[in-house]
Amino acid sequence: MKPPHTRREFLSRSAAAVLSSKLFPGIESASAKTHSGNAVASSGAAPRRIIIDTDPGVDDAMAIFLALRSPELKVEAITAVSGNVPLDLTLPNALRLAEIAGRTDIPITGGASVPLVRRLITAKYVHGSNGLGGVDFPEPSLKPVAETATQLISRLVRANPGGITIVAIGPLTNIGTLLRSDPEIARLIPQIVIMGGSLSGGNITPAAEFNLYVDPEAARIVFDSGIPLTMVGLDVTEKVLLREEHIVMLERVQNPVSQAAGKIMRATLNRAHRGIDATVIAMHDPLTVASLIDPQLLKLQDYYVEVETEGEFTAGMTVGYAHAPVRPSAPRANANPPQPDPDSSFHPNAKVAVGVDPDRFFNLLMSRLTS
Ligand code: BDR
Ligand code: CA
Question: Is residue 335 in some structural domain?
Answer without folding.
Answer: no
